[in-house]
Write a structure and sequence with these properties.
Chain A has about 650 residues and is α/β, with parallel strands linked by helices. The first copy, chain A, contains 23 helices and 24 strands. In chain A, the strands form 7 sheets. In chain A, strands 1, 2, 3, 4, 5, 6, 13, 14, 15, 16, 17 and 18 form a 12-stranded mixed sheet that branches. In chain A, strands 7-10 form a two-stranded parallel sheet. In chain A, strands 8-9 form a two-stranded antiparallel ribbon. The mean pLDDT of chain A is about 95.
């Protein structure tokens, strides 16, 4: 076991369990918080490696990786799930509960790594994302609100790039090549022109080695100064971390002094490529390089135009420099948690950051990290994109299953958020469970394909019968890729409810892992897409739209063929069609369109329509939110 | 003298002066920083009153005001300026230098209060706002970038309100009164409807005392549920803290599922009414009340629609709850600085926060606070708006003058940012100085009108001759409102260069102050406007456009007549016309339009066109900005 280099031994925070389980916010607000300095010390961080943000959250400096460079990594556990109902199956809750069990009950050194949620849903459809019941990350207000400002920094950087793109088109539309060049490289007091730091990237791309602006040829000057962006090809979008449906389609440039209008739209901030870059960066310098490579669109000649061509990569990195440091918080039972990055799962890879996992692996014996949605979605991307870029290899997969979701897969009535559950879900129904269990086994097989042992965590709900839970366990144990299956009740019991699960995970982590990627990067983009479609989703084949065909060909020409694939797909089915429950077969995957996040480093085929901007319902969650001025407590953040 | 309740005596940070003065960023990055915990302790804050944001900045909790409720306030010094050139006359630099002199050289207990700058200009036209030379606030990177995220929180809250307004119109356009009401107050599991916390404000406004939704009359239900916002009257705007000119005129709602389009525009975030509210709030509860009162537009029946009608005031307050705590930083010589709020001076009052000043007045013997632009602009608003809401009365006005600006007022050639200065500004020219000195005296007379003694600070530039500086001083001393006039050289000497100025300010603060407001709130809006126009600007009268006439009448009807006036006027002239330098006479002030920031608490007449969204030049400052990955230093943030 890794020695804890901390000055203090880990002291679990005691929780008092109530029954029935109170509201999440009530539990969170009554919880005892350790000072974050104590959490940090207990996990072996030095005081100078922390940047405090108040008393209960801190950023961890990347220097720690240098100090611990020679320490072997801990075990790397990914928590994923079966195909969920629209209500979610408690994956974050299980991730947190499992950590509480390991740290506060088994005395293991453990760190949890999860994503920061977008503020959009927090104020839209009621529901925080800090776990639930007696398995939560606290303080939940900070978790669900600004945290340390990472998403705000991404929004600021994203929108600075948008302004830079459009304003550059504006200035190019009103100025000659010479005028542009002379303004870009103005004379100083001594009449001398020079290139700014941010201009070197474009010069290098042009193959110009001359660094005296006056010595460039006229042709070079013109090429340097005129990006000649084709407005119809610009794929970079402004963003805001608010559910603002009116921004799904907009026209900008209607001020009286503008030269042209542009039709565009906003993304929610977490869908920004910058968020995916934050999650995938392996150092500040790597983040800068990825930002520089971002392709915002094409020139009229069809060449990709990058952030570096705009001379803005350095400034965007400066705006995002603090985001790369993972945010440290704690669970209800006092174990450490990194909350870091939160790429929108539908058009990005949906996993928390490489940096948080890397630091955690040096500090703890067990790192419990969560991947987005099911094994077909976040887990596949976790392996093929995140682990590939990080070089960190996973040891165990925890597959969260619920009786409720299996019943749905077995043919139970439609489950809709906000509507009451049908009787099938509230009363015992072994037949539906049994019929639906195939979905769980299919997800286990996906993990098995990567060579990783699977532990099934059956997340207990109050309406589940013992017979139902036992049936899930029994079926799971018959699958050869599943090394154990355990019922866990961390929602109502905290870590104590997941001790058996934690023991199973520890045991599984001692098994040999034979990890392999699903595909080599050298495969063509189409072959990679088809491998995922057939081997992971179980499709019979793939159909490409003409635009998808065309883009894939172009991406291969441009040298993006070696990037991994990030499928933009529904999470509500293993297939592309959210209506197909269980384990669909015989379907073909339609690729409607394809895009590339060249900076983040993946190509994403789009299956169906992906909303990148949620809306607000008639009665948004914000109606409930407020402050009790007598106690200072925040109300209504559930 | 107030006793310093701190555990530690103040230890000035020693600075080593170089000549010629290096670039601001170079001085800032070579500076010695005290841990902010030490700065806090030296100023008498308790550890539990701090929320650290890293090692060198912290938020100060408002609890300190309760602890020190019985301590008498320190002296309250406002720093203002004569009418500046477009280059600025070093008001922030003087504010900082004066503080360094008082604290590090005279051993006085002093706190500086200044505004947080917008990130827009930082990446647009090169230029930070942390002071300059050897009078700066550090770390300048934090100062110029996110600081503690206050502006980001404002942006988030502002845009949540925008989404709430538009989405409410969307839902109202597709649903019946009954449908709306039933969705706003849905049945719970027991079939019972209830009003959310955020709905009580609207019920109270309607005069409905019933709190059981089912017992409202149909008419009440309809009125409650349908705000019936007239889209053409919505004045609330989305915002972004980026110079994005394409957002000066936009159309939203062009997504395929929307019901209507809206023509609108973005403000830069610091122009948001929420920023003005942050600056004027006197407690968290007061902030909530001001937010609730925000008028976003009118119903089709012509009634004002407020944030409270939308049920969102609590949520916006939660988003902004941390912004109200002032941000503590330090000067190059280790004296404490509050950096807090930064309302856009052109459509708001342009002063830093009431909260920072209030806390500072309890902690220090001298509080040096800066007001925006000249005495006609920020100082008048400081007195008539900020001091009126805070109840804190000022003791001394420091009026910053420069030889350069006086020469411009005396008839010197036009001064343009970015272009080299004309010979008149670089060589001695006593005639121009003498001719232009009237502008300084006019500003002094404005301060005198409020009953406050004035100390003139002649901010020395390297090109100024001793004779020019002495002439300014001599002319100033002949004015009866000016109690002293001192040449200061804090830019190149730090606090040592402003010791004489500091002594003059200490002396002036011992004089009796006979502060009085310019106008009583009971005056009509028009009388207040005319009082400012004639008594402060020296106008012959005021001309109202028809729309301004109409709005003023309506505001009186709506009960906004008692609000103070916040003139939206150019800062480049005492008049409304930036071309009129010196002390213009015989002009009439044209009021083009009038708006009301009912939440913040002022009516703002608009003189000329006010840009609320700057643009980026062809070569923006971001080209220079980057990180040196070897040293970790930020480059190019000047």
């Amino acid at each position: 076991m890794k020695l804890n280099p901390g000055l203090r031994r880990f002291i679990p925070t005691r929780i008092e369990l109530k029954s029935p389980v109170p509201a999440d916010i009530e539990i969170a607000q009554e919880a005892t918080l350790k000072p974050i300095t104590q959490v940090a010390e207990e996990m072996g961080l030095l005081p100078e490696e922390l940047e405090l943000y108040g008393d209960y959250k801190a950023k961890v400096k990347l220097d720690v990786l240098e100090r611990l460079a020679d320490v072997p990594d801990g075990k790397y556990i990914d928590v994923t799930a079966i195909t969920p109902t629209p209500l979610g199956e408690g994956k974050t809750t299980t991730t947190v509960g499992l950590s509480q069990a390991m740290g506060a009950h088994l005395g293991r050194s453990v760190i949890t790594c999860i994503r920061q949620p977008s503020q959009g849903p927090t104020f839209g459809i009621k529901g925080g994302a800090a776990g639930g019941g007696y398995s939560q990350v606290i303080p939940m207000e900070d978790f669900n609100l600004h945290l340390t400002g990472d998403i705000h920094a991404i929004t600021a950087a994203n929108n600075l790039l948008s302004a830079a793109i459009d304003t550059r088109m504006f200035h190019e539309s009103t100025q000659s090549d010479t005028g542009l060049f002379n303004r870009l490289c103005p004379k100083d007091k001594k009449g001398k022109r020079s290139f700014a730091r941010g201009m070197i990237g474009r010069l290098e791309k042009m193959g110009v080695t001359e660094r005296d602006p006056d010595l460039l040829t006229d042709e070079q000057k013109a090429k340097f100064a005129r990006l000649d962006i084709d407005p119809d090809t610009v794929t970079w979008r402004r963003c805001v971390d608010v559910n603002d449906r009116m921004l799904r389609g907009i026209t900008v440039g209607q001020g009286s002094a503008e030269q042209f209008e542009l039709h565009t739209n906003y993304y929610i901030s977490v869908a920004s490529e910058l968020m995916a870059i934050l999650a995938l960066a392996t150092s500040l310098e790597d983040m800068h390089e990825r930002i520089a490579r971002i392709v915002i669109g094409q020139s009229r000649a069809g060449e990709p135009v990058t952030a570096d061509d705009l001379g803005i990569a350095g400034a965007l990195t400066v705006l995002m420099k603090d985001t790369i440091k993972p945010n440290l918080m704690q669970t209800l039972e006092g174990t450490p948690v990194f909350v870091h990055a939160g790429p929108f799962a539908n058009i990005a890879h949906g996993n928390s950051s490489i940096m948080a996992d890397k630091i955690a692996l040096k500090l703890a014996d067990f790192v419990i990290t969560e991947s987005g949605f099911g094994a077909d979605m976040g887990m596949e991307k976790f392996f093929d994109i995140k682990c590939r870029y990080s070089g960190n290899l996973p040891d165990v997969v925890v597959l969260v299953a619920t009786v409720r979701a299996l019943k749905m897969h077995g043919g139970g009535p439609k489950v809709t958020a906000g509507a009451p559950l049908a009787a099938e879900y509230v009363n015992e129904n072994l037949e539906l469970v049994e019929k639906g269990a195939d979905n769980m086994l299919a997800h286990a097989s996906i993990a098995q394909k990567f060579g990783i042992p699977v532990v099934v965590a059956v997340n207990r709900f109050p309406t589940d019968s013992d017979a139902e839970l036992e049936l899930v366990r029994k079926i799971a144990l018959q699958h050869e890729g599943i090394v154990d299956a355990v019922v866990a009740d961390h929602f109502s019991q905290g870590g104590a409810g997941a001790v058996e699960l934690a023991e199973a995970v520890v045991k599984a982590s001692e098994l040999p892992s034979h990890f392999k990627f699903l595909y080599p990067l050298e495969m063509s983009l189409k072959d990679k897409i088809e491998t995922i479609a057939c081997e992971i989703y179980g499709a019979g084949g793939v159909d490409y739209s003409p635009i998808a065909e065309q883009r894939l060909e172009r991406y291969e020409q441009l040298g993006y063929g070696n990037l991994p694939i990030c499928m933009a797909k529904t999470h509500l089915s293993i297939s592309h069609d959210p209506e197909l429950k269980g384990v669909p077969k015989g379907f073909r995957i339609p690729i409607r369109d394809v895009s590339a996040s060249v900076g983040a480093g993946f190509v994403y085929p789009i299956l169906g329509t992906m909303s990148t901007m949620p809306g607000l319902p008639t009665r948004p969650g914000y109606y409930d939110i407020g402050i009790d001025f007598e106690t200072g407590k925040i109300l209504g953040l559930n």
